Amino acid sequence: MKKIGWFTTARGPGSLNLYNTMIERMDSGDINAELAFVFINRDIKDNVYRAEIVNSAEKRGIPVIILPSDNFEPALKKSNLSEWRNKYGEKLREKIDCYHMDFGVLAGYMLIFDDATCIKYPLINLHPALPDTYKGTWMEIVGQVIDNSDESYGSMVHICSPELDRGDTIAYDSFPVAPVAGDGSRDEKIQNVRAEESRREAPLLMETIKMLVNGEISLKDGHLYDPEGRRMETYPCLADRINSKIN
């Protein structure tokens, strides 16, 4: 059975939904895997979403690792962000090295990984943009989608690499923008498109994880391979699979 490391900042309902969906898909047997650990880079404090994930994981016997990044060596972070990122990554690796994971999933993880961590572990990330398009936060990206009158929009799952949001694409989802955006103000269009993308995020991530768990695709040295061990130069659009899950 595949073992998956789950990385999250668990800041809001989106992160909680991704975690809960993963648990549901594993419980149903649809994804034949288990979580090796849940890593959270924030203290629980009064965050109800974070607390719910921690409580759920602990009840299931899933190790929970909390390493707050917001108060980790603040002086170094202010003076040398790159070196701070490397030191935090070193501490992160110390924390997770005792657990075996076949690959890690960044699910609402709001921190950039250092190069050494990206190289050492096969990690996948959900990014709210189509392949080879935009970088940034969802707000920045969807704003550009609306401003540029893009015909389609969606998310992708890609391999984490030292170059931010530019690792090999594993799979993606796409949907037409105009029917979703509507005829309202710019802000209304952004919110409408974001709502549709958000609705489709969890199915995209789950279907991608399922492909990895079932051996339809595999990760090695930062690249994507087919079942015969050949490096893949193209990546699947999972829109049809996602439509069947949400409609």
From TrEMBL:
Protein name according to UniProt: phosphoribosylglycinamide formyltransferase 1
Pfam families, per the entry: Formyl_trans_N
Pathway given in the UniProt record: Purine metabolism; IMP biosynthesis via de novo pathway; N(2)-formyl-N(1)-(5-phospho-D-ribosyl)glycinamide from N(1)-(5-phospho-D-ribosyl)glycinamide (10-formyl THF route): step 1/1
Species: Candidatus Methanomassiliicoccus intestinalis
PANTHER family in UniProt: PHOSPHORIBOSYLGLYCINAMIDE FORMYLTRANSFERASE
GO MF terms held by the record: phosphoribosylglycinamide formyltransferase activity
GO cellular component entries: cytoplasm
SUPFAM superfamilies linked to this entry: Formyltransferase (SSF53328)
Record keywords, A-Z: Purine biosynthesis, Transferase
Classification via InterPro entries: Formyl_transf_N, Formyl_transf_N_sf
EC number assigned by the record: 2.1.2.2
Every Formyl transferase N-terminal domain range: 19-182
Keyword Transferase in annotation: yes
Signal peptide range in chain numbering: none
GO biological process per UniProt: 'de novo' IMP biosynthetic process
